[in-house]
Specification:
Blueprint (H helix, E strand, L loop, with lengths): L15 E8 L12 E8 L2 E5 L2 E5 L3 E5 L5 E5 L1 H6 L3 E8 L15 H9 L4 E3 L4 H10 L4 H16 L6 E3 L11 H17 L6 H7 L4 H12 L3 H19 L4 H7 L5 H12 L3 H6 L16
Antiparallel strand pairs: 1-7, 2-5, 2-7, 3-4, 3-6, 5-8, 8-9
């Protein structure tokens, strides 16, 4: 988190900027900027730290972040160790890039509503083949063709059913970080993201932040609006939700693979962050006909 405000400029003056990222892993720190950001994760997986939420991201996910929405994509160790390239296509733009009040016209009410909701972060839970193709096409285009493709993208997304547009943060979050805070907390966040499956302790985190343990705990809670242990549990629960939906493992293995050492504690923390037990969470996404391996114990 070395940079909190990240400036994006477009030398062409077209009012929007298309960037394609192909790298060993995503390297952008926890940041925000004064532009909207529409991004397709073409290939990669890991954790998205978005304002106060931590969620999993994977291939073909699409997100729309409004101005000042703080976020960062962290790759899983397992992805980096595979030696594959992380691939993303991002479009940065201002709301008035076509002129003041353009999207406030009644003809574009759906796009205007979409942009309004993006201030809390949006995740397209179902990405259509058309949307994926438009993202791929825009990287090869320039001028009018590029503009038409971008407007078509906004139109396609704005017409998706509400069930396909997940709001990441129900309430807006205003970051309290300064650049000094970012430099101090970046190694701490990386430490958690890279080691949450193992023992993670505040003493090690405090050393990384160059603070005493007691001072670090106060500092972390003041900046992150949650305790260090709550943040660690949040990361672990986010990982568990992904395993519940992608692996046919029993609950015992999932809580262990997510870094928890106690089943009862895992169940309590899982319900705290999701509002459901692990079993309820899994069942809500799968029909009864699917043959998943389920834990026979009571939560």
């Amino acid at each position: 988190m070395k940079v909190i405000f990240e400036h994006q400029s477009n030398p062409s003056g077209a009012g929007f900027l298309v960037k394609e990222y192909i790298q060993t892993h995503f390297t952008s720190p926890y940041h925000f900027h004064d532009l909207y950001e529409l991004i397709l994760i073409k290939k990669s997986y890991g954790k998205l730290y978005a304002a106060k939420k931590i969620i999993n991201f994977q291939d073909n996910d699409v997100y729309l972040f409004g101005p000042d929405f703080a976020h960062c994509f962290y790759n899983e160790k397992s992805f980096i160790e595979k030696g594959e390239k992380a691939h993303a296509i991002a479009i940065f733009f201002k709301k008035d890039f076509l002129g003041e009040g353009f999207f406030e016209n009644a003809k574009y009410v759906k796009v205007n509503e979409l942009l309004g909701k993006s201030t809390s972060g949006l995740h397209l839970t179902k990405t259509t083949p058309v949307i994926q193709e438009l993202f791929s096409n825009i990287t090869k285009q320039r001028g009018l063709d590029e503009l038409i493709t971008f407007l078509t993208l906004l139109s396609q997304i704005s017409q998706l059913p509400q069930s396909s547009l997940g709001v990441i943060n129900e309430t807006q979050f205003v970051t309290k970080f300064t650049n000094k805070d970012s430099a101090r907390l970046e190694p701490v966040i990386n430490y958690v993201m890279e080691n949450f499956r193992e023992e993670v302790d505040s003493k090690t985190a405090a050393k990384l932040a160059h603070l005493s343990e007691s001072a670090f705990c106060r500092y972390f809670k003041g900046r992150m609006e949650q305790t260090f242990s709550q943040f660690v549990n949040h990361v672990r629960v986010a990982h568990a939700t992904n395993l519940l939906l992608t692996e046919e493992w029993d609950i015992l293995r999932i809580y262990f693979e997510s870094g928890f050492k106690n089943l009862s504690y895992f169940n309590r923390q899982f319900r705290h962050f999701t509002g459901q037990s692990p079993k309820e969470y899994r069942r809500s996404f799968y029909s009864k006909s699917e043959n998943l391996v389920m834990d026979s114990r009571e939560d």
